[in-house]
Write a structure and sequence with these properties.
alpha+beta, two-stranded antiparallel ribbon, 7 strands, NUDIX_hydrolase-like_dom_sf, Ribosomal_mL46_NUDIX
Length: about 140
């Protein structure tokens, strides 16, 4: 494929024999990190609604997907440095139906469609280890 030859990682027309995973490069504190799209849950919002919101807020309305199930497939918790606060991130699986990513959140600087094997090149080790538990090739 042309995308494989050119190294274009912004298209789903690459590695057609493999499952692709959407990652975004987001400003978190003072750092830019590659993460799965996420959003903070608002009061009264279900976790599945938050998962849908995460995709729309991160990728715009042009990306069509289906969130699988009503319960998360995994979670990651961490402490915020220099505070007593902690954060839990819950993950949902989604299937890509079509459309394109149009970054809409100013804290998101870039995105890529990567294979499972490529994920570890972008993620921090602790984060990658946790999400690798529920991502299957």
């Amino acid at each position: 494929m042309t995308a494989d030859k050119s190294g274009d990682m912004k298209t789903t027309d690459r590695k057609l024999d493999r499952k692709l995973i959407l990652i975004v490069q987001q400003k978190l504190g003072n750092d830019l990190r590659w993460v799965l799209p996420f959003a903070y849950r608002d009061d009264g919002e279900t976790m599945k609604e938050t998962a849908n919101k995460a995709l729309v807020n991160s990728c715009g309305n042009g990306l069509e997907s289906i969130i699988l199930g009503n319960a998360p497939c995994g979670y990651f918790k961490y402490k915020i440095p220099k505070t007593a606060d902690g954060v839990k991130m819950f993950f949902f699986k989604a299937c890509y139906k079509g459309g394109n990513v149009k970054l809409s959140d100013p804290s998101i600087k870039d995105y890529k469609w990567v294979t499972h094997d490529e994920l570890s090149e972008y993620m921090k080790p602790k984060y990658y280890k946790k999400i690798n538990q529920f991502l299957f090739e």
